[in-house]
C-alpha cells in the first residue's frame, strides 16, 4: 500500500467508521454466534500471496461484525461506559501514525511532557489537593496506565516495596521473606475482581471487608480487622477503597478510612475507575472529600489515569536503569521517565487523546455529558419505581441503576436469560447480599431518553410474561 492508496483507503475507513457508529443501533447489540464460529470463516493458515484490500474490508462484515458486542450501541447497558468520541478516535489515528514508544523523555519528549501536563489538567479538573499536581516542582503527578487493573497492581506492588524497606530499615535482622509472609491487604467484598487479582499477582494476602447497608466500607469495620491482624503478628500495609463499586456504584467512606490508614502507616489506594470522572462536576465533588490517599484511579471516559501524592514511591519500586535506556537529561527536575511508573517498558502516545478530548469538549462539555448519563439513569429509576412488580436495590447516584423483579433469584435469572437471548438490549447481573440483581448502566455516547423508554418497555414485557407463566404453574 503506497501513500496514494493509503490516502484513499484512510478516507474510506473514516466513512466506514462514521457509518458504523451512525447506524449502530440498527445492529443487534449482542452477537448470535456459537464458540468457535470465526475459525470456520477464515483459512487455517496465513496467505502466502498478498490479498486484495477490498476482500479484507468485505470480510470485516462477514467475519468480524457477527461476533461483536456493540459496546457503543445505545442498547448496551452492561458493565460501564467505554471510551468513545470522535476527537479521541482522530487522536488515536495520529498516535498510530507517530508510532513512538515513549518509555523515556528522550524516546519522544512531547510524548512524556504532554502526559505530565494532561494529568495535571485532570488533577485540577478534579480539584485534587496540590500534592497530587506535578507542575514544575511538585512531588506528585499522574500517569496513564493501560487499565484500572494495572493501576491497582502498580499501587499494591509499590506499597509492598515501601513497607518491606521500612520494616528492614527499623529491624535489619528481619529477612524480606519473613516480612513478605506477614503482609496483609484489605478491600471491600464488593470491590472489582482486579483488586483481588492484584493481590494474587503480588503474592500477598487480601482480606475482604464487609459493608454497611449502602454497600460501603466503614472505618470502624476496617479498624477492627487491622487491630485483630496486628495482634496476630501480621503487617497491614495496603487498603484499596472504591468510589463507585462495579456491582452497585457504592462509595466507601474514605473520610473514615483515610485517617485510619494515615495513623497505621498503611498505603491507601482509591479506585474510582468509573465514578471518578463525575467529580469534575461540583455536585459530585464532595464524594471525593477525604482524599488523604497515596493514589487515585480515575477513568475520564477516555483513559485510565493514576494520580499519586509522591511519585518517588512508584519510581522507587520499579526503577531499573540499564545503560541503553539512560539519557543526558534524566536527572533534570523537569523530566519524567514513565517507564519507572508502570509494568511494561513500552507505552503509546496516549495523552494525545486526552489533549484532543479536553480541548474539543472543554470542562463544560464533559460536565454536560456526565450529567446527561446521570439524568437518564434517574429517569430509568423512576420507571422502575412506578411499577409495583419491581424494586430498586441500591441508591442511584450516577449512571447505574440496580433493580430486580420482586421475588426469587431464579425468576430474575430467568428474566436476564430472556433479555440476553432476544439481543435487543444487553445487561449483566451482580449479586448484593445474596440477591441476584440486574444492572442497568448508561453507557453509550448516543443514548437518549427514547432508548431508555424502549429498554424499559422490553424489560417489562418479558417480566410480565414470566410472571404470567409462574402464575399458571402455581394454579396448575
From TrEMBL:
GO cellular component labels: cytoplasm
EC number(s) on file: 4.1.1.28
InterPro entries: Aromatic_deC (IPR010977), PyrdxlP-dep_de-COase (IPR002129), PyrdxlP-dep_Trfase (IPR015424), PyrdxlP-dep_Trfase_major (IPR015421), PyrdxlP-dep_Trfase_small (IPR015422)
Keyword Protein biosynthesis appears in the UniProt entry: no
Entry cofactors: pyridoxal 5'-phosphate
Keywords: Catecholamine biosynthesis, Decarboxylase, Lyase, Pyridoxal phosphate
Pathway: Catecholamine biosynthesis; dopamine biosynthesis; dopamine from L-tyrosine: step 2/2
Record has Lyase as a keyword: yes
Quaternary structure annotation from Swiss-Prot or TrEMBL: Homodimer.
Family classification: Belongs to the group II decarboxylase family.
Protein name: Aromatic-L-amino-acid decarboxylase
Organism, as annotated: Takifugu rubripes (Japanese pufferfish)
Amino acid at each position: 500500500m503506497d501513500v496514494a492508496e493509503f490516502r484513499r483507503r484512510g478516507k474510506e475507513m473514516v466513512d466506514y467508521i462514521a457509518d458504523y457508529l451512525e447506524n449502530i443501533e440498527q445492529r443487534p447489540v449482542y452477537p448470535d454466534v456459537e464458540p468457535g464460529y470465526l475459525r470456520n470463516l477464515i483459512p487455517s493458515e496465513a496467505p502466502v500471496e498478498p490479498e486484495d484490500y477490498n476482500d479484507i474490508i468485505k470480510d470485516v462484515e462477514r467475519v468480524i461484525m457477527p461476533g461483536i458486542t456493540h459496546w457503543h450501541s445505545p442498547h448496551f447497558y452492561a458493565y460501564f461506559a467505554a471510551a468513545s468520541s470522535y476527537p479521541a478516535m482522530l487522536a488515536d489515528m495520529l498516535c498510530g501514525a507517530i508510532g513512538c514508544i515513549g518509555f523515556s523523555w528522550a524516546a519522544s519528549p512531547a510524548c512524556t511532557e504532554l502526559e505530565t501536563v494532561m494529568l495535571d489538567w485532570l488533577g485540577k479538573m478534579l480539584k485534587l489537593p496540590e500534592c497530587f499536581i506535578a507542575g514544575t516542582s511538585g512531588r506528585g503527578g499522574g500517569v496513564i496506565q493501560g487499565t484500572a487493573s494495572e493501576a491497582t497492581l502498580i499501587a499494591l506492588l509499590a506499597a509492598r516495596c515501601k513497607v518491606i524497606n521500612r520494616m528492614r530499615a527499623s529491624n535489619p535482622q528481619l529477612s524480606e521473606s519473613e516480612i513478605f509472609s506477614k503482609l496483609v491487604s484489605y478491600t471491600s467484598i464488593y470491590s472489582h475482581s482486579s483488586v483481588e487479582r492484584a493481590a494474587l499477582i503480588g503474592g500477598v494476602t487480601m482480606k475482604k471487608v464487609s459493608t454497611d447497608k449502602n454497600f460501603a466500607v466503614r472505618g470502624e469495620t476496617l479498624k477492627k480487622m487491622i487491630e485483630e491482624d496486628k495482634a496476630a503478628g501480621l503487617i497491614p500495609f495496603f487498603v484499596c477503597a472504591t468510589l463507585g463499586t462495579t456491582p452497585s456504584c457504592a462509595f466507601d467512606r474514605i473520610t473514615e478510612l483515610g485517617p485510619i490508614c494515615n495513623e497505621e502507616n498503611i498505603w491507601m489506594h482509591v479506585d474510582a475507575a468509573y465514578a471518578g470522572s463525575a467529580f469534575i462536576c461540583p455536585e459530585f465533588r464532595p464524594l471525593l472529600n477525604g482524599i488523604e490517599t497515596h493514589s487515585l484511579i480515575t477513568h475520564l471516559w477516555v483513559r485510565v489515569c493514576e494520580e499519586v501524592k509522591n511519585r518517588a514511591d512508584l519510581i522507587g519500586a520499579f526503577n531499573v536503569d540499564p545503560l541503553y535506556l539512560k539519557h543526558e537529561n534524566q536527572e533534570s527536575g523537569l523530566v519524567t521517565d514513565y517507564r519507572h511508573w508502570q509494568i511494561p517498558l513500552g507505552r503509546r502516545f496516549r495523552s494525545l487523546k486526552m489533549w484532543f478530548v479536553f480541548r474539543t469538549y472543554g470542562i463544560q462539555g464533559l460536565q454536560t455529558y456526565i450529567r446527561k448519563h446521570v439524568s437518564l439513569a434517574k429517569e430509568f429509576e423512576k420507571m422502575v419505581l412506578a411499577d409495583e412488580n419491581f424494586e430498586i436495590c441500591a441508591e442511584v447516584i450516577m449512571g447505574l441503576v440496580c433493580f430486580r423483579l420482586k421475588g426469587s433469584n431464579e425468576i430474575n435469572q430467568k428474566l436476564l436469560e430472556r433479555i440476553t437471548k432476544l439481543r435487543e438490549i444487553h445487561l449483566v447481573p451482580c449479586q448484593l447480599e445474596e440477591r441476584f440483581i440486574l444492572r442497568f448502566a448508561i453507557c453509550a455516547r448516543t443514548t437518549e431518553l427514547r432508548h431508555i423508554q424502549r429498554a424499559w418497555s422490553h424489560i417489562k414485557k418479558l417480566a410480565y410474561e414470566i410472571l404470567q407463566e409462574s402464575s399458571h404453574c402455581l394454579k396448575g
